[in-house]
Amino acid sequence: MKLIVPKATKSIYQTANVWKNFNPIEEIVPTKYTVTYNNPYGGNIQVINGANIVMSGEKVEKDTELTVRATPNAGFALKSLTLNGQDIDNGHTFRIDKAVDIRVVFSTATALDEAAAKPLTLYPNPVADVLYLSATARTIRIYDMYGTEVAHAADTDKVEVSHLPAGIYTVKADDTVAKMVKR
C-alpha cells in the first residue's frame, strides 16, 4: 500500500515500525503560491504570516494564513485595498489557495471622489478622442483609478484623451468632479 509523507520525512517513516511496511513511501512537495503587492505612494502595505512579513514575490505554502495591513502616511487616507481585484477590508485575513496580487491606493485628505457642489456635464461619454465640458474651466485634470493624473488642460472646455487606454477616469474641472468612460 502506498504512503504519502511530507517532504524530507521519508527516512523516518521507512524505519518506524507502524509505517515501514508501506510500499512505496513517497514524499510530497508542498504547493506554494506567489504573493505580490505594490509599493504604494502615501503609505505602506504589509502581508503578514504569523509574526513574519511576507515580501512581494515570495512563495508561500498553500493554506498558510495571511493578513493584509495597509498603513497611510500622515496626510493620506486608505482609498482602496484589493486582493486579486476584489475589494477587501484593512486587516483582512485569508488562507492562500492560489497566486495572490494585492493592490493598495492611498489618497490625500482631499480625495478626488468627494462629491462636488455642482454637477459637471461631460460629452460624449463614453469618449474616444476629445472630451468636451458643459462650460469652460480654468483647470481640467483627469485621473486614473489609482489617483494618478493622466491628462490636463487649462482655460478651455475640452481636453484631448485619445492617448488614454480604455477605462474609467475621474475628471476634475475647477471645483467640480465627474466620471468619464474612455473607450
Mean pLDDT metric: 89
What is the β-strand count?
A: 16
Helix and strand string, N-terminal first?
EHEEEEEEEEEEEEEEE
Shape descriptor = elongated
What is the terminal-to-terminal distance? Answer: 61 Å
The total count of helices amounts to 1
The strands making up the biggest β-sheet line up spatially as 6-3-11-8-9
Structure description:
With 183 residues, the chain is mainly beta. The protein has one helix at residues 10-15, and strands at residues 3-6, 25-28, 32-37, 43-49, 52-54, 58-61, 65-72, 76-83, 86-87, 93-95, 100-108, 122-123, 130-143, 149-160, 167-173, 176-182. Strands 6-3-11-8-9 form a five-stranded mixed β-sheet, with no helix packed on it. Strands 12, 13, 14, 15 and 16 form a five-stranded antiparallel β-sheet that branches. Strands 5-4-7-10 form a four-stranded antiparallel β-sheet, with no helix packed on it. Strand 1 (3-6), helix 1 and strand 2 (25-28) form a beta-alpha-beta unit. The longest helix has 6 residues, at 10-15.
Key features?
mainly beta; 1 helix; five-stranded mixed sheet; single chain
Could you give a quick summary of the protein structure above?
The chain has 183 residues and is mostly beta strands. The chain contains 1 helix and 16 strands. The chain is elongated and about 85 Å long.
Topology:
Blueprint: E1 3-6, H1 10-15, E2 25-28, E3 32-37, E4 43-49, E5 52-54, E6 58-61, E7 65-72, E8 76-83, E9 86-87, E10 93-95, E11 100-108, E12 122-123, E13 130-143, E14 149-160, E15 167-173, E16 176-182
Parallel strand pairs: 1-2, 3-11
Antiparallel strand pairs: 3-6, 4-5, 4-7, 7-10, 8-9, 8-11, 12-13, 13-14, 13-15, 15-16
